[in-house]
Amino acid sequence: MENFIIKFDEFEGPLDLLIELIKKRELDIYDLPMSVITKDFIGSIELMKENNIEVTAKFTAMASLLLKIKTQMLLPSSKEVDPRNILVKEIEEYEKYKSNLERIKELQFIEQKYFKRRKRDVAKKKKKGSILDVINSYNLIIRKKQLKERNMKLEELSKKIAESKFTIDDRMHYLKNLSDSIDVQKLFEDINDLEEMVVTFSALLELVKVQYFRVEIINTQVMLIRKDL
Amino acid sequence: MNKYAVESVLFVAKEPLSSERIAKILNESESVINRWLFELEKDYEQRGIRIRRVAGGFEMVTSDQYHEVIEPIVPKEYEFLSKPVLETVTIIATFELKTSQPVKKAKIGRYRNVKNPDSGIESALSMGLIKETEQGYLTTNEFLKFFGINDLKELEEKLQQNVNLQ
After folding, report:
1. Optimal mutation site among B54, B69, B78, interface A, most CBs of chain A within 10 A
2. CATH number listed for the domain at residues B3-70
3. Residue A140 lies in a domain
4. Correct CATH for B83-160 of 2.40.30.270, 1.20.1260.10, 1.10.10.10, 2.40.10.340
5. Which of A56, A66, B113, B120 could hold B84 in an S-S bridge, CB 3.0 to 4.6 Å?
6. Helix (H), strand (E) counts: chain A
7. Residue B19 and residue B22: Cα distance in Å, rounded?
8. What does each C-alpha distance from A209 to A172, A186, A205, A212 come to in angstroms?
9. CA A61 vs CA A5, A15, A42, A56, B24: distances in Å
């Protein structure tokens, strides 16, 4: 039995050990002599313990299963359903998994022989940086900060607008009723109040956005024309 | 438009493209694109470049016949999977093939003979080879691409081929 211990590294799990024992004795897995295989199995894990090899719970669970099947075989009911069926199924599934594992491992060796164009990206990743990249990122941050500041100012302004006597809704209504075509420059020239100008401009943008007006250049004049015209 | 438009699209694509996608790019019907793809596959059969079907799409690859010529001139990119990841994806693919159902963690643990199958599952998840569902784990398109196969049916055929023959 010693030779099983030497090769123990190969036995990752109880089924590996069991299959190896079956092979050694050249047993038929469809007609396993349970007393022989159980004795072999338990003997092997006893030797593992003696040699200070960790016997995990999975090995002892397998030993219990083997003992259980061995006992069941002695009962008269075992004539109807072979209690070894469950073990046969487990062995078969495990062997299938092991051979699939080998095959999938091999598929990697096959696949690595195919080369694709996307490998050009590798060169890009290794691109050398320069002081220009540092300046660029510095400028980017400055721009972001300026943008943030501007947004804050805009926010303040829109707060002021909200409090003002002019509302965007009113101005939108006003613009809708003003004319079917509006000369933008003339529209703003006629407004003297800065606040009114801002609100009117916002209303104008809104109406273009909702596609009430479209913008047209007619004889260098910027005109707002009603969309449905 | 003709089949060479498809050829040029495949040449620049970084990922396998489905015929549906190519049809959209070229503004042609899918049946026409499929015919062109079929013709191109034939055209390329004897070339140093092949058109093959991977993960439901089409891609250009060098012929495996010339890998020894190419290997010294391009950086090695293919990375073999670690043992835990390989075992994890094998178990998931095998049982997904058998049942078309997600595979539970307990099953992975049982076959892998490890106390805790989590790290193998985590690595496979982070590599995108598998995905998590409420009922367990399934393989992904990334998995198919990694092994250069079109679908799990093709994997099944490859698994059934004799291991020692290849």
Report:
1. B78
2. 1.10.10.10
3. no
4. 1.10.10.10
5. B120
6. 10, 3
7. 5
8. 12, 21, 6, 8
9. 19, 11, 11, 9, 58
How far is Cα A200 from Cα A188, in angstroms, rounded to an integer? 8
Question: What ipTM goes with this model?
Answer: 0.88
Domain boundaries, chain B: 3-70, 83-160
**Domain housing A53:** 2-111
The pTM is what? 0.65
CB contact under 8 A, A101 and B146: no
pLDDT in tens, A87-114: 999 999 999 999 999 999 999 999 999 9
Strand partners, A180: none
Pair A12, A77 in one domain: yes
Write the pLDDT tens digit of every residue in A163-173. 667 788 888 88
Of A111, A130, A145, which residue sits at a domain end?
A111
Chain B CB contacts of A101 under 8 Å are: 86-87, 90
Per the CB < 8 A criterion, the answer to whether B127 and B142 are in contact is: yes
